[in-house]
From TrEMBL:
InterPro entries: LRR_dom_sf. It comes from the Eukaryota. It comes from Mytilus galloprovincialis. This is F-box protein 33. Gene3D superfamilies: Ribonuclease Inhibitor. One of its GO terms (biological process) is positive regulation of protein ubiquitination.
Length: 306
């Protein structure tokens, strides 16, 4: 429905109408929404049984509010549905929300072996904190996006490295700077969280990190590990930190020399440059800017391709 709030408010009625008239033909259904205020919004009443009628459905996007074991059972063994893509938008997380079990994901993957899952955290501090409760080992995560959530969950990123090394292809994380400086994140591992991700996730093709501090050495490590397989590697110049020798805290930001750029480019085997500030969305710098403009086209592209 293209994130049109006027239509999404009537999702239940529209689903019933589609079920009566298009149940054997409908291949794509997109009822996921965007909530800029993830702590204060109404949840549309949808029943998992409403999805059972769509026997040709291959592409689905929904809010996490409607994810349940019952919903996944509509695409599990014995069902005609052979779901290929599932996009889940996470906003707030209700404390009473049913946890989707690993068994449910195992069952749906048996029936839908081509299934690829995208998880989008949108203005969702709850989603960042509760990400490990959302994830399950059998969830076939292909793409993870996090838009303006004010924090990272390194433990969840490490979970990606352990459980999605054969499925994960794309990481996209964007946030606003903190008083003009990139946001630091802290990993409890000896190696950087994203370097470990690049090492273990051998199918990784796209990596975007905007608004968070990343060391120049870690950028080079990611480029070497994934090489020419990495087709997109977006890092802002203003977020690149450099350590002085024998120092543990960044000595400077936003400075790289030609040798650094050449080294990364040689590893990737294509001409790479860090992103200039002029290439970044305004919301990275201005907390009052419309953040939705930074990601709406990305989210819509999921629907346009299916």
């Amino acid at each position: 429905m293209g994130f049109a709030e006027e239509l999404l408010e009537h999702s239940s009625i529209i689903l019933d109408l589609l079920g009566r008239n298009c149940s054997r033909m409908l291949e794509s259904l997109h009822i996921a929404s965007i909530k800029e205020d993830s702590e204060n919004y109404g949840i549309i009443d949808l029943s998992a049984s409403q999805f059972l009628t769509f026997t040709a459905l291959r592409h689905l996007s929904v809010d996490y509010d409607h994810m349940s074991n019952e919903l996944l059972s509509a695409f599990s063994s014995g069902c005609k549905n052979k779901l290929e893509t599932l996009v889940v938008n996470v906003h707030g997380i209700d404390s009473e929300h049913e946890k989707v079990t690993n068994y449910s994901w195992i069952a749906v993957r048996k029936n839908c072996p081509k299934l690829e899952v995208t998880v989008n955290l949108i203005h969702s501090y709850d989603g960042v904190q509760g990400l490990l409760d959302i994830l399950q080992p059998a969830l076939p995560l292909t793409c993870f996006r996090q838009m303006f959530c004010t924090d990272l969950n390194p433990s969840a990123i490490n979970y990606f490295s352990s459980h999605y090394k054969d499925t994960l292809r794309s990481i996209y994380i964007i946030d606003g700077l903190n008083d003009g400086f990139p946001i630091p994140y802290f990993s409890h591992m000896e190696e950087d969280t994203f370097v470990m991700l690049a090492w273990r996730c051998t199918k990784l093709e796209e990596f975007t990190l905007l608004g968070y501090e990343i060391l120049d050495d870690d950028i080079m490590a990611i480029a070497r590990l994934r090489g020419e397989q990495l087709k997109k590697f977006d890092i802002p110049l203003s977020c690149i930190a450099t350590l002085d020798e024998d120092e543990e805290t960044p000595a400077r930001y936003a400075y790289v020399d030609d040798d650094f750029v050449l080294s990364v480019s040689n590893s990737l085997q294509w001409p790479w440059y860090p992103k200039d500030d002029s290439e970044l969305p305004l919301a990275v710098f201005d907390a009052q800017a419309d953040a939705e403009l930074a990601y709406i086209d990305i989210l819509l592209s999921d629907q346009q391709q299916k």
